[in-house]
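Might you be able to consider the sequence and fold that I enclose below?
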Amino acid sequence: MSDPIRHPLAYARQLCGNLSQTGLAVRMDQAARRRGLRSGADKQAISKWENWIKEPNSDSQLLIAEALDVPIADVELLGWPYWLPGCDSPLPLGSAYTVQALREAQRTAMDRRNFMTFGAVALAGLSAQWAAIEPERISTVLDGRRVDLELVDWLEETTAKLTSLPTEQRQHTAKLMDAHLATVTDLIEPGNYTEATGRRLHLLAASLAGICGWHRFDQGRHYAAGKHWNAALTSAHAAGDRDLGAGVLSDFAYQSIWLGDPKAAVEPLSQALIHTRHPTARSLLFLRRARAHAALGERAACHRDLSAAETELLTDAVDPAPRWCSWMSTADLAVDSGQCLLDLGRTEEAHARIDEGMRLLPRSRDKTRGIFLTYEARSLLRACEIEQALAVTTESLDLAERIGAGRCITLVRELAPTFKRYHGIDGVPELMERLRAA
């Protein structure tokens, strides 16, 4: 497979007959001349935009829009880079779109787009639909051979077994999950089942699409992850499972925070909180919204949500937590609270909370441990405890490589610029060499 496309502008150029960066600069210059202006854009400037180093100013965006034949209204409505050609919107909710969403997710296997395609406007619209639209009855046909209930039993049982495997083994199950999702989609499409069986199939599709989305997210394939989560939300809504839908919205929100767009996370999480009752689920939603507020520098809102997350987590519940958040624990609360404090500049308190969470985290959650270790390393670097930060970072990299967690490796790479300042410390050059090879 050729190299991934990492920015919507690069994909937009490809859609315009593989237009080169120089070619785009020429078109922008022509558009500027028609307006009696100077463009100032060249290949180097466009390269910086496509490598997420800089964003074009408003004047440059208007020239890009004219060069790519995009309506100016889209530029003003959607914002950069979501107005560019090729930035898809999620499919709406409703039974008419369920199979289409599942098929679109499966077609992303060869798609090379690695940028996030659903921005703040699209996610806010999707979460508003989810909150306002009541699910329809699952349509059935019943004029052919009905779905075999033993097959449905087997698919449910094997999916549960695959998802309960230790982290280190789950790296090998992605293709099996994809195959299960394709099979369930094939069973849903003809409609040859009772409404009860249809609900089971839609719930299974939602669960599988959500898991497959996380596989893509961990690989850095954000377009594919978003498509799978769109399919998961559509299927969960069709099955009438509000809690599962809230979990999918929280996945979208987590991705937005991860990709540096915390503002896009706030509305989906707020909608999910309105319609979710289980205290463990609410705790996780409050915690993720606190992370978004912290990244935005909204101190008071962050602390309110952290307090609410702790209160909900300590609340007893009659029913077990939904599967999508059953792992939520005091360790997660402690570490993510520490990351919030780190974003807010309270380094010493952040280090204490992250350290507390690391002690509480069970050994079975290796991927989470790898991510938490990078948070700990970041707090140690801010405290200028370089040797300890180096040891923690090396441990995280060792773990990430063993379990095949590309997302953890990405987090470690983000620490590299800080470590470069300490090139003379024993072990730092070796770490930098490993990161170049990773």
